[in-house]
Amino acid sequence: MTLEKIKLSNKHRKIQRNIIIGLILFCGLLNLLAWLSESFAGWYRENIFPVITTPFAFLTEKLPFSLGEILIIIALIGVPLSVIVFVVLMIVKRKSKDAKRTIRHVYIYAYAWIIVYILLTETLNCFVLYHTPSFAEMYDYPGETYTPSQLEQLADFLIEQTNAFSEQVERDDEGKFVLTADLDETAKEAMLNLAEEYPQLDGYYTTPKSVINSFFMSQQYLMGIYFPFTMEANYNDQMYSLNMPDTVCHELAHTKGFIREDEANFIGFLACYESDNTEYNYSGSLRALKYVLSKCEDNCSDETVSRLYNELSDGVRTDWNGNVAYWQEVQESDEGIIDSETVAKASDKAMEASLKLNGVEDGKKSYGRMVDLLLDWYFMNLEDE
Q1: What angle do CA 133, 380, 271 make, to 5 degrees?
Q2: Buried b (16+ CB within 10 A) or exposed e, 366-380
């Protein structure tokens, strides 16, 4: 290699290095500002997040598969394979210092760009959003403290609604729920229906995509997943089908900047409940009811809890039990490469760690805070109906 080429190569590497360092510092600054200033994070979600994510989501939506899933598979295979190739090349080129130097630089910068891409997209599409004002603060929900009696009222309301919806859906020969709605388009319509009251939910919606490795998701008790690095809303298409409408709405809520799980849960419920589709009404109501009944078990008397469960209709019981049976079957299956118990434990720890690192102190327990929003919503709007 001539001296001129060496100088040019060094110049290009220096430019790359400076850009990489600059992007890492930029991500660090954004995260710091978000942690220090809720108002900054809120401004970012309202004004910047939709601008940078909409064209991104538009492009990735055109692919007929989940790009996020494919990238993860490539990483799982490609990283160890690339390490092996690197070692082999170092051995083969051991007598050529220039070749070995070039290979090292190629590997270093390739991995550096991959890390920067992940850090940048996670920061812009996920990390900053954990520090935004809450849904309740944005839309003037009172955030009051409610009594066990009021919690029981909410449970009674949801049981009545869920029982009614369960009578209106199609069922198979075993009495189990059958999904007939156009899952994707109905979800988009349901979300847009909320935009008049909740403007942050307005705008372009990507099409939710099923995941090829849905069984692996089931092993982790995952119904859906939002990929910040591809702006995709993905769902498990092997789970009990009644979960799907609420799940896709939940994941679409993430694409609008509501990254906290309790808020996405609540938005998923609202979208389903106010949808024109009965299957969506039923899916959202039953999911909300499960959270409320769980909270009742912690706060109401045994007599009250027993009464509430006894009021569930046969259709609701069939679907509740069908859902439980599905997850149990997955955990007992030997279909996966790794046993389900190991996968579930690893996934649980990873999720818990991720939430806490992003400032969600109660980790996965935060999912249940959806009930606080449900109580506000009920006593603000529906108590007198």
Answers
A1: 65
A2: bbbbbbbbbbbbbbe
What are the tokens at 344? 């579930």
In this structure, the dihedral spanned by the alpha carbons of residues 341, 369, 300 and 154, taken in order and rounded to 10 degrees, is: -120
Residue 284 CB contacts under 8 Å (≥ 6 apart), including other chains: 245, 246, 249, 268, 269, 270, 271, 272, 273, 275
Residue 263's closest CA among 67, 174, 162, 130?
130
Q: For helices 183-193 and 261-273, what crossing angle results, to 10°?
A: 100
Q: What is the amino acid identity at position 4?
A: E
The Cα 358–Cα 287 span in angstroms is 25
Helix (H, G, I), strand (E, B) or coil at 207: coil
Residue owning tokens 């449900």: 374
User: Long-range contacts for 334-340 (Cβ within 8 Å, ≥24 apart)?
Assistant: 335/215, 336/215, 336/216, 336/219, 338/219, 340/219
CA 93 – CA 84 distance, rounded (Å): 14
What is the spatial distance between Cα 113 and Cα 2, in angstroms, rounded to a whole number? Answer: 27
Per-residue pLDDT of the chain (385 residues; tens, 9 = 90+): 554 555 556 777 888 899 999 999 999 999 999 999 999 999 999 999 999 999 989 999 999 999 999 999 999 898 889 889 888 888 877 767 777 888 888 888 899 999 999 999 999 999 999 999 999 999 999 988 899 999 999 999 999 999 999 999 999 999 999 999 999 899 999 999 999 899 999 999 999 999 999 988 888 889 999 999 999 999 999 999 999 999 999 999 999 999 999 999 999 999 999 999 999 999 999 999 999 999 999 999 999 999 999 999 999 999 999 999 999 999 887 776 665 566 556 656 666 666 667 666 655 454 568 999 999 999 998 654 5
Per the listing, tokens 């290095």 go with 17
| CB-based burial, 160-187: b 16+ in 10 Å, e otherwise | ebbbebbeebeeeeeebbebebebbebb
The residues near 39 (Cβ < 8 Å, ≥ 6 apart) are: 133
3-state helix, strand, coil in the chain (%, to 5): 70, 5, 25
Q: Which helix (H) or strand (E) element contains residue 262?
A: helix 261-273
- What would the two tokens of residue 12 be? 């290009």
